[in-house]
Design brief:
The complex is a heterodimer. Helices cover about 20% and strands about 35% of the residues of chain A. Chain A is an alpha+beta fold. In chain B, strand 1 and strand 2 form a beta hairpin. The chains are: A alpha+beta, B alpha+beta.
Chain lengths: ~130, ~375
Amino acid sequence: MAQPAGLLFSKDHEWVKLDGDVATIGITDYAQHSLGDIVYVELPRVGATLQQFAGIGVVESVKAVSDIFTPLGGEVIEINPAVEADASLVNREPFDGGWFYKLKLADVSEKNNLMSGADYDKLIAEA
Amino acid sequence: MDDEPLRRTALFDVHRTLGARIVPFGGFEMPVQYAGILAEHAAVRERAGLFDLSHMAQFELRGTGVAAWADALTINHVATMKPFQARYNVFTNDAGGTHDDVLFYRLPDRWLLIVNAGNAHKMWEYLQAECRGDVQLTDLRGESALLAVQGPRSVEVLAPLVEADIAALKYYTCAETRAGGARAVVARTGYTGEDGFEVFLPADAAVGLWDALLVEHRSVLAPCGLGARDVLRLEAGMPLYGHELTEEITPLQAGLGWAVKFAKPSFTGKAALEAQAVDEDYPRIAGLVLDGRVPARAGYRVLRNGAVVGEIRSGSIAPSIGNKSIATALLEPSSATVGTRLGVEVRGTEHPATTVALPFYKRG
């Protein structure tokens, strides 16, 4: 089950799409499937400053609350209002319409702490 | 008891084959979901769902002394039950708190007592310790399975596999018959707020009936796990032991006053419950609907004008109530009045909510 091309991944099952110093962030298809029916997403506010790998929000399924750990640090410049309005979008389109927020990166080199799609596939194969 | 290895029902391998997600519950490895909790919930509300409830402990009671003995340990009437009748009841402690909430089924020559899986060990010890007179207790755990078919199309799904005319069964009655070729007790009872049946049958016949039901009715009947069951029962305002009922929470506090029969000459906890009923100033379970979509989880604090007035006991998103966030809370009496504006504290932020009457959902 290959991951979409061009993305980076964290061990906490977030994906990152880089465009210069702007990162779009969401959770992986593996993560949404593990969580089950997602009913609520709580995201950081626009303007908030995040530290790489800090817990910055939650995603809730019918049964459980899970933390969102930001895979990169920086300033939140946009959040996805669609997933706040309808969290099931994360189940349906985890890599597309179900994205969470965009960051203006503080330090682009933090991406070196993330993994490729191939390495992420290995991680979840061992899980 | 926590050290004991997890048990499996007769249907464990079937659940695995169906792709169920398995979790520990009440000492068993049980399916929490198959296709998904919301899809299974919808199946039960719109068509029919099939549940394995074999983790629930089944005790058989025999003897001429059963009715009087059970009447002295529980809040509701037992002796007035007629053969083939089912009745909800609660075993109370001396303080009026709840040992367990149960169902009695009266059959011509015996009774079935169904207790919560998580209380099975405690209740077996308790019943044995309290056993006196002509009462014989048998633990059917491992020998007897329990399947439930719940939802508006339950009759259509189950009737072809049962000898008795289940369409004619009244709510909270049962029949001794054959189901899927095996001897069974089929009862029109459930824990979902829908029409439906519960089928008690030998464990070695459970897979046969389960498979026959799913093969015949794949498009109508969905296998459902404990996740959907919890959402269904919460919407229907039914208490779950450990949440709305505990050793500390009395049936009166849980809104089960209708089941407390003070006319009975005596029962364990009667004096405490009478005092509570007269005083009326006790925390009680109420329904909450939040303004927003954030789930209210068990243990969250409930606030009124900044002061803590209670605690969430159960909560979920409720597909049958417009996908609203609903919860039960144990509240100070002045805050339990319908229409009271409250706040639920979620991760340090107060989310507005309103007290509502239970149940949240009633079938049309």
